[in-house]
Every structure is written in structure tokens, then in C-alpha cells.
Amino acid sequence: MTSQPYRLAEGGVIDRTRPLTFSFNGRRLTGYSGDTLASALLANGVHLVGRSFKYHRPRGILTAGTEEPNALVQLEAGNRSIPNLRATRIELYNGLSAASVNCWPGVRFDAGALIDAVHRLVPAGFYYKTFMWPQGGWHVYERLIRRMAGMGRAPEGADPDRYERTNAHCDVLIIGAGPAGLAAAVTAGRSGASVILADERGQPGGSLPDVASDGDVTGTSWLGDTIAELQSMTNVRMFTRTTVTGYFDHNFLIAVERVTDHLGPGAPAHLPRQRLWRIRTSRVVLATGALERPLVFANNDRPGVMLAGSARAYVNRFAVLPGRRAVVVTNNDSAYEAALDLHRNGVEIAAVADLRAVPVGPAAEAAAAAGLNILRGHAVVDTNGRRRVQAVHVAGIGLDGSLTGPVRALHCDLVLMSGGWSPAVHLFSQSGGKLRYDEMLGAFLPDGSRQHVLCAGAMNGVAETASCIVQGQDAGKGDVPAASEPTASTVDAHWPIPARNRSGEVRQFVDFQNDVTAADISLAVSEGYQSVEHLKRYTTLGMGTDQGKTGNVPGIAILAGSLGVPLPAVGTTTFRPPYDPVTFGAIAGRDVGPLADPVRQTPMHAWHAETGAVFEDVGQWKRPFYYPLASETKHDAVARECMAVRRAAGIMDATTLGKIVLSGPDAVRFLNRVYTNAWGGLEVGRCRYGLMLGEDGMVLDDGVTARLAEDRFLMTTTTGNASRVLAWLEEWLQTEWPELDVYLTSVTEQFATVALAGPKARAILTGLTSDIDVSAEAFPFMSWRGGHVAGFPARVFRISYSGELAYEISVPARHGLELWAVLLRSGPDYAVTPFGTEAMHVLRAEKGYLMVGQETDGTVTPIDLGMQWILSTKKDFIGRRSLARSAMLDPLRKRLVGLRTEDPELVLPEGAQILPTAPSGPPETMIGHVTSSYWSGALRRSIALALVKGGRDRESATVHVPLEGRTARAEICDPRFYDPEGLRLHG
Amino acid sequence: MLLISCPWCGQRDESEFTCGGEAHILRPADPDALSDPEWADYLFMRTNPKGRHRERWCHTHGCGRWFNMERDTATHDIVSVYRMGEAPPDDRDGNSS
Amino acid sequence: MTRYSIFRLARNALAYRPNWPRAWRSPDPRPAYDVVIVGGGGHGLATAYYLAKEHGVSNIAVLEKGWLGGGNTGRNTTIIRSNYLWDESAHLYEKALQLYEGLSRELNFNIMLSQRGVLNLAHNEHDLKEMSRRVRAIRLNGIDSEMLDPQGVKAEVPVINISRQVRYPILGASLQRRGGVARHDAVAWGFARAADARGVDIVQNCEVTGLDVVNSRVRGLRTSRGTIAARKVGLVAAGHSSVLAAMAGLRLPIESHPLQAMVSEPIKPVLNSVVMSNTVHVYLSQSDKGELVIGAGIDGYNSYAQRGSFQIIEGQMGALLELFPSFSRLRMLRQWGGIVDVCPDASPIVGKTPVEGLYINCGWGTGGFKATPGSGWAFAHTIAQDRPHALNAPFTLERFSTGALIDEHGAAAVAH
After folding, report:
1. Does residue A492 belong to the interface with chain C, where contact is any CB pair within 8 Å?
2. pTM here?
């Protein structure tokens, strides 16, 4: 076995002292450090790498870079597998394993290629015209089509790798470390600016190593000197393997650094696999180069047909011969340089077919001088070969684009084609920059920019290295590069090149990945899909993983030709981010798993967890839902907790309720505006319940507010709304009522709060405090006292959400856990039982108390809740006017009621819908729904709250509640089920 | 992602801010004097122009202050920022991109 | 209209050169029409089609500023469902879904309706209660919907992560099996072709620059292609509704916001159903081509720029990988933005305006695609009869004065 038969003995930037082994489609091969997977495959003579998306045509390696449409592979297997990577971009590492995608059983024999045989049945847009029979049939066809489509496979398990997101700021971000970018970086660096130079390759230098085997075409050591100078500058950061891929508003760009991809699975564990850079910069210099385009001729897609510049890169950078005998076809000068480089390295150049009648330029002359067989005014019109090109057919082509003279066959194993170069304007266009079409270059060039961005080098249509350097220097200074004449050679656009036979069998590929042909474009135009966006969507031109980097301009040209309009009249499709696909994991960074969202825990959380509490997520908080003993079900645990509160005492962690201190002389005026009731009369030491509405009159939040001092109040909010309410209050204060002298401070996390509830609560509290008189007379309902509880400084609020005698004890957060423990120990006489949120829900529902978010959903007014009593008529408040709108006065609005099921054992499901009559078949008339529903141990029956049209006007009426497989009957009643007089909480 | 100059903190990324919608909508002094459509105009109707738009922003994850901004909704260019209670800058020719 | 049939497909396949006729003409605008529809997206084209088909209006133009279907029709994530809470919404979206079910054959254009099921995930107790309420209401409205437990979710979506050990575990889901996806461009093209066949003039690259209103009555439009007289004008230009309404002196309760979406590179089938999660703000499906099509919430500011901010994508991706950890190594291929009309109650406005002869259809927010045929059907009725159909009667502009909103945000608040 000859190892790497197509590798040159010397030259290139590969490291021959570091051979690497890898496998492709199960075959073990070798390459060198510095290879890409593509160059290593070519060194081994492997051209057939993949299959196309639609026709499953054999495909080889078209390019040497990011723009590759064909050579897609599945890299590695298992949870580290990655689909659809371009072989031209994968840096080879030892042990690498890759396989072709989208073929079965293999890339050489692919069953999917049957489609290729019947391709006439499936031109562009055929889907839209068929698969309509019978109705609903699409779903069946679709299953087959989906299996044929797609490319690689997603891994099956979770990603074992880690990703990071990092911010960077700089004065100048330079994208592309070719001659122009390097020159810009040095110039900007010397000025003292903070500079980031980012390049997608492993080393700076851009395409220099592609075009000269010593990596330096300037005849000096410019490249090495420049890199050394940049490395010596502390204000310059050079990012390699970093693709700037998105250009957003206000000079915000994202870049992906492939930190360990080139090391393979053996990479150091402490490094992230990739890092997403979020870069904000004052200025951008784009030196992103240019991408070569294919020519569009019949069967231009066979393995072995390659872009000329890419073949040149394989020879010079990787010291690999992509073939032994080549035919070159070009419409511009640059391919001659490729031909010469290949010729110098021993590739036989069978012919150079130049579409131009009169090639001019030094490279063409040098090629002639070197004795190459140059066929002026000639084109390749077809190719032969199944898995590898074997021959081309050449014919003369006239100025009008028609073929002239006989068609000749030339044997070859390599075709180099060049359709000219398209400046890589993708990022420029993303930035909002305008493009103009240059007839001479046959390319879109940057025109007016919208952001602070300058373009330099090949992306301005400049070809010579020296000119690129000058442009880079200008841009590095912050000057618009002098409009040096574009020096890239002129092109004679022939899109498509006519075919030699006109049988309709001809396929001239424009988009290699998606198998869009010139005929597809003509068909789309004839059917009326004439906007460039319609064309894209109808034919899928440019919608592959390469996003049409090579094929879009030829496609647009063919569209313009079909329409008979000049190319600029057609325009381009939108260049959308990203320039290069971005790994999902890198976008999410560390915001996955436990870090997906902050977890908030109370100071007592450890006890809850140790005790085996079942938690519920409320916003970001973890709240104990209930505390099951050994074998208890949820139902049993909640019932036990409820009974403990009703009979003795329970404690609940109420720390999560929002707490806001309002201070300032205008606090009362402010409260009067944001709450529906009046606050002037509230004495220091007293508390009041308040209801807050949106300006639309809908209930927003509720809670108890205590007057701490003449000018100080402590407001509580619901757990889930705490930050929303604070933001809401701040917004009104700052934007509408700046004249009010009130300050808001969130103190939610400063205090731990325990609700102590039950008939024994007073006795328990008495034993824990010496400086608070907890007698009913001295400490009445809806008041608060300061002092010490269990030795900790505390505020004790006598408020109740359970309907029992209850206190809420707030202590500095650091004492929360101890207070909790002390309260638990205050038994055994009083048997204090911890209870969770579900028991709280039951207890408050027994009382008919509203729970915001359960009885309310943003469409419920206080009137709907039967809470007119809390609406002051003596003042304005937020939302008041909305309550007077005509629809709010409709007597048939849904209002809060109680529901008593006919079967007292039946606990209705929450969310159950309520019908006025027995169901008769959909659509039913629904008059409301169950908002809360529980088993009430205290009442020994089920209870429910509901919002029902007409509300209490229907009291005593029987309603029907459809359930799974049956319908329950229930009676509408007063929602206050338990102790309606409130004797217990006043006790 | 916008780069926003908080009048109190200076330039910060958009992710620190919350947009509060159209600015200079005053709460009616006497809501009872308004008809339902007039109240709805205050409550719901918005100018929503394509082009320059005066809007309120809050530096939520920063100083917590609300301020006003004039921004072009077609280009995302920020024309000016000004503090609550201040009149919009008279210079309507400024442009930051 | 030349019908697409198996026979014709075969004949074209054998022909030396396929000879398919134009899908629609490209006429110059005439000086006057009975009805002018402003906006050549799915809703506008559907309106024109149903005006011609159901109401016999023959003299109709659709004016499109750019290219057909280039607005939100071609930018959405193609999800179709009718599982709405309120009766008003349920009936309107269900009408749309029923029309969708017959649309490929009705239009003789395969819109690739794939009723692969839509799951809405629940991540906490509150979500579960909301889900219970919704599913029950939807079923009683005669619309299919069912509740799944986590194992049921896993059975439908094997690739999803139902571990309880994640930040927001999946506690259940609702499933509408008749929900799914359709090919968005095909909906616009299919309606365009069928409307064109009924004589509707579809005029692209024709921007409306002014509305002529005399004595509170619409007389015509000024456009980039000349003045056009019209007895009736329907505005159906999502994203630009406020701009157009302002031409008639109207203010709308609408703000235009960016809505972003993205696709992954195409992969072999891995996800059959459509999966949505309001709690973690992400929704996705896999296209027939193999791309994962992923959407998120809107950007927070007004914009007409058809692009948003990257942090939205970052947040969406974190949420996605919570649900699908095995997608972490896939790659984002393409990302874009649309402009959505956001109404205070997240329900559309479809009806008359204070200007006689001027009708408006807007405010569909992030969910307009699924309504396309129903919206067009009801709007056509409204324009033809000069009064709304029962289906869209609740969706008036006046509801913002009376307070009779149809608030589909539902229980946005999580409290207690």
C-alpha cells in the first residue's frame, strides 16, 4: 500500500514529522498535522466524499474552505458526533473518524441514487404540484420524503462537552488575517488602539499559503515579520480558529472560537469545546477575502471537478496533488495561476479552456510561455465519469454564448474551474451595508456602509497582495481605502455554458448541495417565480448548509438571463446571519442544566430538603409543596397538614413573598394611587390588605401592607409577582409621579418569614417572646409588633391567610433556619406541624380567599371577585376608570362563586368547565370554570371556587361539570366555606 | 444588539435594559372626564411609527432608572437619550449609528 | 388555471422541456377596482380568493409592496393549531384549521399540511392547572385536544428529556393531534395562483403611499405605481398595520415588534411533533427538509427592521437544550426576523373601521400563519357584506373601548 500517493515530497505548511492516522467510511488512512480532512483524503486519492441532497449524486471536494457545498461528513460517533461538517474545514487529528452523510448503504453504492435516474419526474417545485391525492395523503408521502431528506444525524445523548460565552470590547475589530487584515491590524495596533484580529483558520496569513508554497508572495519575510510585530503588541489580540459569523446592530458581532475541535476527543478537559465571543467594537475592518465561483456546465458536479483556486491551495498549502491530468476551464485570469502551480508540481495540464476570446494578463501570458495548451474562446460543455471525472468535452464558444465548432473529448482525472470571484460581502451585508454590482468583475462589491465598518483587500475586488496590504493599512488607520482600481481580472460571464446536446437530460448544477440546475431556474422563471426570493424558495437555491456561497451569483445571473434583465435589476437575496453555522451549545454557553436559570432558595431550604419536602417551582423559587411522611400520598399529607393548622398549629415558610419598603413623606399618597383602597387612616402598628390593579382594571396583585412608621410602610406581594410589582411601582414613581417623595427598597431576601397558624399559635408565640404582648387586646388582628422572638430581633404581623389565628414572624434572613427549628421544638405540647403551599391553598380556599394567578388570570376585575368593598369611591387609583367601561358592567361577566358538588367525595379537577345544562354535544355553552378545588378535611367534603357568568345571581342553581366519561353536578354557593364570620382568626 | 447610553451610567448593552414602549403618554388628570374611546386611546392606542420613535427605557439591570430615548424603528439608530422630565433635545439632526 | 394532475406531471416529465404555465400573471394595476386588498401575504391573498370565490366579487386587486409572501408569511415557523382557550378564538382558529385540511385540493396546490400533532408543555403546577382548563374548554368546543403525562410526552417525542432533575422539568403536555405544520410559501403561492385564476390582479412591487379618504369614506389609494380608485379597501399588512392606518387618520392598539426564528442544518428525522413551551419560551418542529425550525419570544422594542437582537437567540437556545440536550452539537444555519403586530390582548382585529369602505385585518401577533385561510374567509365576508361574520364579530377595534377584550395571554401571572 502506498501511503498518501498524491502527497508531494516537500513543500506546504503541513508537518511531515507528525503523521496522523484517521478513518473515513471505515477505511484507515494517514495524513499529517496541518492537514484538513479534505486535504488528507485527496492525498490518499479519495475524491468521492458525499452524496447530494436531492439526487444523491456522487460528489467530491469542490473547495478548500468554508464555502464547501459537497464534502459533508459525520464526524465521530456517539454523543460527540457532529453532523454535516465540511471536510474542508475539519483539522485532522490523530484517530479522527468520519463518514459520508446522506447515503445508504454507503457512499459508493447509494440506494438513494435511484432518484437520480428518475430526476425528470422531480424538477424544482414538483412537490407543490403533486402528493395532493387523497386528502391528507401528504402526511403519508411526507414520511418517505423526510427519510430521504436531511443530511447527517443528531447525536442520541447529551453533549459531554462544555461551551462558554465571553464578552470582548475593542476599538477595532479586524476580520480576516490575510494580507489586508494583517496590515490593518499592524497599522491600528501601532496607533495604540485596542485591536482584535480574528481569523477562521489555525494560523494567520489568509490565502497566502494557498498561493505560494513558502507562504509568502511578497518576496520578503513580510508575513513572518508582521505576525511577530502583532504578537509583540499588548494592545492587539489575535484570535485564530475564530469565525466572526454575525454582524448585528451598533457594531455588535458574534464570533465562534473553536478551542479544542482541532484536538479531537483528547482535548484537555479544562477547556471548553467552543467559545462564543460577543464583541462590541467602535470600528470594524472587514478583510474577509473573496470566494471563487464554479462555472455552470453540464455535469459540472462530478468528483474531481474542483475550483481552480482550491486546487491551487491543495498543492501549495497541503502539498497534495488533486489529480494527475487536469483540464482547466475559466472565464478569468486567476485560473492560470492555479494551472501554473499545478503544472510546476507535475500535474499534466491537458488544456486550459478560456471562455474569453482574448485572454489578457500576466498569468495567461506566463501560462502560454510555460507551453500550456490554451484554448481561447473554448468551454467545457460536458463531463464523463461516475464516481470520478474521467473526461471532459470541449467546444468553442462564441461571443454570443453559442457553441461553435466540433466537440472534443479530453481525458483527465481533474477539472479546475473558475467562474471568477465573489467578494465575501456576507458580514458587510448583515451590517446593513449596500452592495453594487461590478460588471467587469461580475461581482457584488461593498458600496455604502451603515455602521462604522471599512472594507479592505479582496472583498473590494482587489487581487494583488501588495494592493491588499495598502488597503489594509488605510483601513487600519480608519480611512476608507483608496479606491484602487479593482485588479482582479475581468470575467466573461457565461452562465450557464450551453450544453452540447439539447435533449433535456442536461443538468448544469448551480447549487451543488441542493441539486439546483440551470434548467430549474428557467422553469421557475417560466412559472412566474421571478423575484430572487421566490426563486430561492421555489428551487431551494442557496438554502443548503453552505447558504449558496459558491452558487448564488451564478444563480442570480441565470435568473437575470432568463428574465432578460441586467443582473443588478435582480439583486441578491438577504445575507442572513450566521456566515458560518454556529453550534447550538456555543450559543447557549453555560446557560444550561442547573445554570439554565437561577434557583432561589429560602434560608430554611436545607431543612425542607432534608425532611423530604416535595418542592414546587414558583417563579425561580423552590417552595415546599407538602411534606410527606414515610408512606403518605400527597392527598394524605396535605390533609394532615391542614388538620394540624385547624386543630393545633402549623408553620409555613413564607419567606418568598415579596417585601418592599416604601419610605418618604408621600408614601400614603402613593399607596392611595396604586391600591384600590384608602391608606390615610392606617395607624403605625397596623396592617391592611390591598389589591392592586393594572390600568386596564384587571387584578394585578394583592398583599398586606404594614405601617412601620409615619413615613414608612412594608408592602408584601405574591411570590411570583414580587419583581414585577416592584418594577411596576418604580415605573409609576419615576415616569408619572416624580414629584412624589417616596423611595422603594426590595427587602425580600433580607428577611426570613415564618407563618405560624392555628388555634395554638398565640400560646406558642407567648413562650418565645418576652418583649411582645401577644394578648388579643394588646395585639389585635391586622396589626404588627416589633420585638424579639426566640431571641432574634423580629417583626411579628398578626395576619392570616388560613382563617386561623395566625402570625407571620420576620427575622433577619440569617436567623431563619434557627427560628424555624425553634418553632418546631416549641412542641411537643403544641405539636407544631410544617405545612406546604398546597395546604395553604386549601386553607385559604376554605375561607374563599382569592389567590392571584389562580382565581385571576389577567382578565378578572375586583368586581368579578365580589370585592367591591375594597374599591374606594373617594379617590382615583390605577385601573379605576377601566372598571367603568361598558363591557365591565355586563351582568354576565364571570364572577367568583363557591361550588358544592352533589357528591361530597368528588373533588372537581381545577380547570374543569361549567355548563348551565347537561352536555348535549360540542360545541357546548360554557359559563365558567373551576379555579380552585380541594378536599376539605375540616368540612369533610370537597370544596371549589369558580368563575361563573352571572356569579352569585345564580346562587343555589345546579350546574354541570363534564369530566372524563361523566358529568358531575354541583350547586353554586357562597365561596366562604369555613368560618364565614371570621371568629377564628379574630380569636 | 443595541448599545444604549444610559443618561446615568453611560454606554451599556441592550440586555441590561427593558423597553417600556411609547414615551410622553400622560395619564389623564381626570379619567372620569373621558369617554370610553378617549380612555382607550390613553390605555391602548399607540403611534407605532416607522421611523423616529420616542420611547421609555429602564436600565433594569443597572441603575434601575427610567429614561427616554428617541430611536429610529426602521434602522435602530438611537437619535438621543434624555432623562425623565426633560424635553426631547431640539437638535433633530443628530445621528448616531 | 391549468390544473396540476398526475397526468400533466407525467407528460411534463417526458417532454423535451417542461411546459408549465405561469402560476399567476403579473398585471399592471388598473385605474379602479371594486376592492383593493393592501398586502400580498397569505391573509391578503386568501381574502382576495374568498372574495372572488364566495362572494362573486370580480374586480379585485392585491397590492404588494415587495414580493408575494415576503412578510410574515415567509418568515414564520409554520405552526398550525386551533387549541385556543376562549370560545371566540377557538371558533376562528378552528375554522382556519378546517379550511387548511382541505386547502391543497381546494387550491390544487400542495401546501404540505402535515398534521403531526402539536404539544404544549407544562413545567410547573401552575402550567398544569392552566393546561387542564384549556384542554377541557377546547374539547367542549368540539376541537381535539388531550393531556399527556411525562411518559406520554416521551412516547410522542422520544428525543425529549423528561428527567425531573432539570431546572424546569416537563410535568405534562397538551396535544392537539390535528395540529401541525404546513409549507408557508406554498400557502401564499397557492392562494395567489387560485385567486389569479379567478381574475384577481396581483400587483407586486406596488407600495401604497397614501389613502384617499373623503368625508370619512375611502375613495382610493396612492401607490408607487399610480393612483388607484377603490370602493372598498382592506388593509392586511401585518407589521405595517399602524403605518397604513395612519394614512387614514386611524390609531391602532398595536405595536410592531421583531420576532426572530432560526433553522438548524438539515438532519435525518429526529422530531416528528411540533413542541412548544411558553414557560421557557421556545417552540420547534423539524421541516421535511430536515432542518429544525425554532422560534422564541418577541424582542422587547418596536421595530420595522426585520431583525432583532442576539440575546433573544441565546435565551431561546438555553431553553431548547434544556428540553433536547442531544441537540447541543447541531448548528444554527440561518436566522432571521419578521415584524409582528402585537395587540394588548394578543388577539387580532378583523373588521370595519370608522372610515366607511375601509376594513382592517391585523394584530395577529406571533400566530397569524395558522389563521390564514380562516382570516381571509372571515375578512372577505366582512368586506363583501360590510358587516362582520359571526366568527370575527368579537374581534372588533371597538373592543378596546368597551373593554371586551379576548385576552389570550391567559394566566400570564404566576403568583402565590
Report:
1. no
2. 0.96
